[in-house]
From TrEMBL, chain A:
It catalyses: L-threonylcarbamoyladenylate + adenosine(37) in tRNA = N(6)-L-threonylcarbamoyladenosine(37) in tRNA + AMP + H(+). Belongs to the KAE1 / TsaD family. Substrate binds at Y162, V163, S164, G165, G166, D194, G209, E213, N315. Its EC number is 2.3.1.234. GO terms for cellular component: chromatin; cytoplasm; EKC/KEOPS complex; nucleus. Residues 54-350 form the Gcp-like domain. Its cofactor is a divalent metal cation. InterPro entries: ATPase_NBD, Gcp-like_dom, KAE1/TsaD, Kae1_archaea_euk, Peptidase_M22_CS. It comes from Naumovozyma castellii. Keywords: Acyltransferase, Cytoplasm, Metal-binding, Nucleus, Transferase, tRNA processing. It is an enzyme of class 2 (transferase). A divalent metal cation binds at H141, H145, Y162, D344. One of its GO terms (molecular function) is tRNA N(6)-L-threonylcarbamoyladenine synthase activity. This is N(6)-L-threonylcarbamoyladenine synthase.
Automatic annotation (TrEMBL), chain B:
PANTHER family: CGI-121 FAMILY MEMBER, EKC_KEOPS COMPLEX SUBUNIT TPRKB. Component of the EKC/KEOPS complex that is required for the formation of a threonylcarbamoyl group on adenosine at position 37 (t(6)A37) in tRNAs that read codons beginning with adenine. The complex is probably involved in the transfer of the threonylcarbamoyl moiety of threonylcarbamoyl-AMP (TC-AMP) to the N6 group of A37. CGI121 acts as an allosteric effector that regulates the t(6)A activity of the complex. The EKC/KEOPS complex also promotes both telomere uncapping and telomere elongation. The complex is required for efficient recruitment of transcriptional coactivators. Belongs to the CGI121/TPRKB family. It holds the Pfam family CGI-121. The gene is NCAS0H02860. One of its GO terms (biological process) is telomere maintenance via recombination. This is EKC/KEOPS complex subunit CGI121. Keywords: Nucleus, tRNA processing. It is found in: Nucleus. InterPro entries: CGI121/TPRKB, CGI121/TPRKB_sf. Transmembrane segments: none annotated. It comes from Naumovozyma castellii. GO terms for molecular function: tRNA binding. One of its GO terms (cellular component) is EKC/KEOPS complex.
TrEMBL record, chain C:
The gene is NCAS0E04000. It is found in: Chromosome, Telomere; Cytoplasm; Nucleus. It comes from Naumovozyma castellii. This is EKC/KEOPS complex subunit BUD32. It comes from the Eukaryota. It is an enzyme of class 2 (transferase).
Length: 386, 176, 263
């Protein structure tokens, strides 16, 4: 039995309000969420349907010039520059006039992520907490994605495909933990796409992955796929090999290396493959691998629902492929959120944090608010589910 | 004579006859081009399963237009072998001039009305016996089979069933 | 399983082969039939497995055809090779049609009592974890030990399964005990790399952890005991190789735990 109303809202209110702060990578997100207190949430498992109301969801992304990735130090500086502005704006939009009275809890990302940026954000969290005398809750970034996905889509117990710049995991819930069934053995898919985008020197705004998707859509040669290594190993997958290979193809293309038979016709020297073709082939291969390991987890756990979360989840082609796979498994459904929630944001931290808070999880000593780069999804005890 | 139909390919019927004490193998061999049978050397056949699995494979290959030999019955002979060398397969699995036993395989296309009823007893000078594993066990040469199918030296089958299984594996995987 | 899929397979097999769908794995659908592809029916109760890898519509046709053929062949080849290794238990390959992604195999296993389902390791462990059962009983320990032995034999002979989960281990009753058979070698390969063996063991460890969490520690211990026995019985060389595999297994484990995860 799970009682989500274990901790009462402050000041005799009939609802909870949480502020969430997220900055584990290059997106700084601040969000405010409201949960009404509902009698039926005292028994059973309702954490996927909190009737949450999103009062504000503000985000600012630190974008670097084409061909460059974002470094921790610069990212941290960006977050420090923007957090006060964003917090003020978020509170204003949420019509929070007096945080001291109106906020129940401040939630921040404990990890995983980049050290310096995480650190900048937690300082803001601690400051606000001390300033307004509001308790703090530490949230796992991945769990944030999962809980937001569940709340938005109302999926009860899906297999979760979490795909972002820093993570690629297939997760299923079992006995109070989000267990990792499959994951990348080396780099994350978002990272793979981002790095290829750098090789291609395409713009990083709005996001490198989005630009690769647009290029892939422009591919005129969809019937001819460039053959890439396909590396699924059981429930896991490996992507560094594909990246290395496609990077070398791209370099040969730019150099005009006519010796490369895949790219250039041996007799006429004519270019057979374009940048768009490479992007298309890369997506088709990578996404096929992701869909395959997701399907494996679904078969093993015996479920027919999938929830895609994380930045790469915004990719329409990935959603399409996943939907087709689910459809072919009778009654299967894919759930996905839009870019407001797929991409890192503060609201998801508030959602997960508020669930934790309602179950009695709260920081008792500031010493507990240390951030950590490495924080496995399955380390979190999911008290708010049965 | 044993009659076999393969469930997935109802258009064909296979008639298999086992002969012993054959005295005119050389004559039969000289006429092979004119006869529409496959003559198989029982020294290399340990079980019905082994032969039937080769027939199945030949039918599958035919279905996807991948016949390597001219006729279905010659394809069955070819499919018995573990390698893709047609000449080699015919040489090893076909009867020899001094063969005293043979297995005769006839393919009947049920939709084909031009069925020439050839008189096997007129062609083969030998004694018909039942085509079953018991009788086959009298004729097969274990060492020859091990060598032909390149069986692993650590693999020591305890009975015909175990040996047959390894051969079926080789047959199914040939060429793939 | 969608009716469309069943119809697709029925069409390929023709009405002469009645099929009963039994499961839909990630890449193949499995049916049983009472008709042998090329042997006359011996007894009415005989059963065979048909494993069919349907075309996956979600992926590009070029990737799909290549994968289907490759996986069908790979699995068939492995079953053939492993059969000849003394001590290893795998299902019998009856027929293989790589052009259509279809394999016929012998039927192994049975239904467990009290509706616990088919006798794979997963259901067996769930059965023993249920009320009035002893999850740490002798039969569980012995069976897991034997499973470890099968994997040990596999690795000792330089093969990797590639997809070791408790659903891919079928238990066959023999004299009141259970004999484990490894199935589903679609992702299998020959490999003498400690990395591949380490990953194989890690995948199984995680699979046990995910689906049998409460008893996973002991279960994984028993699995490794059986595994180690095979290597140890091969003298000094065996002990040395065991060390190498275990060491790499440990590293793969840590890699997972400490993998740097960025937002």
């Amino acid at each position: 039995m799970v009682n989500l109303n274990t901790i009462a809202p402050k000041n005799g209110r009939s609802y909870y309000i949480a502020l969430g702060l997220e900055g584990s990578a290059n997106k700084l997100g601040v969000g405010v969420i409201k949960h009404p207190i509902l009698k039926e949430q005292e028994i059973g498992d309702h954490s996927h349907d909190c009737h949450a109301e999103i009062l504000s969801n503000i985000r600012d992304t630190y974008t670097t010039p084409p061909g460059e990735g974002f470094l921790p130090r610069d990212t941290a500086r960006h977050h420090r520059n923007w957090c006060v502005r964003l917090i003020k704006r978020a509170l204003k939009e949420a019509k929070i006039n007096d945080p001291r009275l109106d906020l129940d809890v401040i939630c921040f990302t404990k990890g995983p992520g980049m050290g310096a940026p995480l650190h900048s954000v937690v300082i803001a969290a601690r400051t606000c907490s001390l300033l307004w005398d509001i308790p703090l809750v530490r949230v796992n970034h991945c769990v944030g994605h999962i809980e937001m996905g569940r709340e938005i889509t109302k999926a009860v117990n899906p297999v979760v495909l979490y795909v972002s710049g820093g993570n690629t995991q297939v997760i299923a819930y079992s006995e109070n933990r989000y267990r990792i069934f499959g994951e990348t053995l080396d780099i994350a898919i978002g990272n793979c796409l981002d790095r290829f985008a750098r090789t291609l020197k395409i713009p990083n705004a709005p996001s490198p992955g989005y630009n690769i998707e647009q290029l892939a859509n422009k591919c005129k040669n969809k019937d001819q796929l460039v053959e890439l290594p396909y590396t699924v190993k059981g429930m896991d997958l490996s992507m560094s090999g594909i990246l290395a290979y496609i990077d070398s193809l791209a370099k040969d293309l730019f150099k005009g290396n006519k010796k490369n038979k895949i790219l250039f016709d041996t007799k006429t020297g004519e270019q057979k493959v374009t940048v768009e073709d490479l992007c298309y082939s890369l997506q088709e291969n990578l996404f096929a691998m992701l869909v395959e390991i997701t399907e494996r987890a679904m078969a093993h756990v015996n479920t027919s629902q999938v929830l895609i979360v994380g930045g790469v989840g915004c990719n329409v082609r990935l959603q399409e492929m996943m939907a087709q796979m689910c459809k072919d498994r009778a009654n299967g459904q894919v759930h996905a959120t839009d870019e407001r929630f797929c991409i890192d944001n503060g609201v998801m931290i508030a959602q997960a944090g508020l669930l934790q808070y309602r179950m009695g999880d709260v920081v008792k000593d500031l010493k507990e608010t240390i951030v950590t780069q490495k924080f496995r999804t399955d380390e979190v005890y999911v008290s708010w589910r049965e | 004579m044993s009659s076999l139909t393969i469930p997935q390919f109802p258009a064909y019927q296979f008639q298999i006859t086992l002969f012993q004490n054959v005295s005119n193998a050389e004559t039969i061999r000289s006429k092979i081009a004119d006869l529409s049978y496959a003559f198989i050397d029982p020294k290399l056949i340990v079980s019905q399963e082994q032969l039937y699995s080769a027939i199945y494979k030949a039918l599958i290959e035919q279905k996807y237009n991948r016949l390597r030999t001219k006729t279905l019955h010659s394809e069955c002979l070819f499919c018995l072998g573990p390698t893709s060398n047609i000449g080699d397969a015919f040489k090893k699995f076909g009867i020899k001039d001094d063969s005293r036993e043979l297995i005769c395989l006839k393919v009947i296309n049920l939709s084909d009305n031009n069925d020439v009823k050839e008189d096997l007893d007129g062609i083969i000078d030998g004694e018909r016996i039942v085509f079953n594993d018991d009788n086959l066990s009298k004729f097969y040469d274990r060492e020859l089979i091990r060598k032909t199918y390149k069986l692993d030296k650590h693999f020591v089958p305890g009975n015909t069933e175990e040996l047959s299984r390894a051969l079926v594996n080789a047959i199914q995987l040939r060429g793939l | 399983m969608s009716q469309e899929l069943v119809d697709q397979v029925s069409k390929y097999l023709t009405p002469a082969i009645p099929i009963e769908p039994i499961s839909q794995g990630a890449e193949a659908v499995v049916f049983t039939t009472t008709i042998h592809p090329y042997l006359p029916t011996i007894n009415e109760k005989q059963k065979f497995i048909i494993k069919y890898r349907p075309a996956k519509r979600y992926r590009h046709p070029i990737i799909d055809r290549s994968l289907t053929k490759h996986r069908t062949l790979s699995e068939s080849r492995l079953l053939a090779k492993l059969y000849q290794i003394p001590g290893i238990h795998v299902p019998k390959l009856i027929a293989c049609d790589p052009y259509n992604g279809c394999i016929w195999l012998e039927f192994l296993g049975e239904d467990l009592p009290d509706a616990f389902g088919f006798s794979n390791l997963k259901n067996f462990l769930w059965m023993h974890a249920s009320e009035n059962q002893n999850p740490y009983g002798d039969i569980v320990r012995e069976t897991l030990f034997k499973v470890g032995e099968q994997i040990g034999l596999l690795h000792w002979n330089d093969y990797c399964h590639g997809d070791l989960t408790s659903s891919n281990i079928v238990l066959v009753k023999k004299d009141e005990k259970w004999e484990p058979y490894l199935i589903d070698f679609g992702l299998g390969s020959t490999s003498n790399l400690v990395e591949d063996k380490g990953v194989d063991l890690y995948v199984l460890e995680r699979a046990i952890l995910s689906t049998h969490s409460s008893y996973a520690e002991k279960y994984n211990e028993w699995l490794i005991e059986g595994f180690s026995e095979v290597y140890k019985s091969n003298g000094k060389q065996g002990a040395k190789k065991l060390n190498e595999v275990m060491k790499r297994f440990g590293e793969v484990r840590l890699r997972g735990r400490k993998r740097s995860m960025l937002g």
